Amino acid sequence: MASSVTNAENKSWMETPPTTPLIRHFSDQLVMSMPWLDKIADPLQQSIGKLFGQPGQTNYKIKDMLNGVWLGTVVHPIVVQVPIGAWTSSLILDVAWLMDQNDGIAEGSDILMWAGNLSALAAAATGLTNWVD
After folding, report:
1. CB neighbours (10 Å) of residue 78?
2. Labelling 92: which of 40, 43, 46, 75 has CA 20 to 30 A away?
3. What does the pLDDT look like over 45-75, one tens digit per residue?
């Protein structure tokens, strides 16, 4: 069992057996139809890799923190819930404001929108550090 886990960790998502073959097929087709993405992704990935350096360096410790090494799991899926929840709640308050144009509802919606925007920066940072590997 441990050897299959090790082998799966060394492969990209495209090399692993699909759990949903139809979705994997269409996802693969979509990605392969956009080779221009590599022209953007490759330099970005190299730049981020250089920014964090090698294991043992100070910047790499920041990368480990953003990746969730301290937690024992990837942080990005956890952090991304904050902007999604804030933006969804903001939308609900906007709809509520349409029914009752209360300034408090509008202010609450604005606060949630900005909380979502700020937390999206944290989600992007954790996502980039996870993606660079």
Report:
1. 13
2. 75
3. 888 888 888 877 888 888 888 888 888 888 9
Q: Please list the helix, strand and coil fractions of the chain in percent, rounded to the nearest 5, in that order.
A: 75, 0, 25
In this structure, are residues 112 and 89 in contact, taking their beta carbons and an 8 Å threshold? yes
Model confidence over 8-51: pLDDT tens digits?
A: 455 665 576 667 778 888 888 898 899 898 888 888 888 888 88
Query: pTM for the full model?
Result: 0.68
Residues 35 and 42: their CA atoms lie apart, in Å, by 11
- In 3D, which of 109, 106, 117, 107 has the Cα closest to residue 83? 117
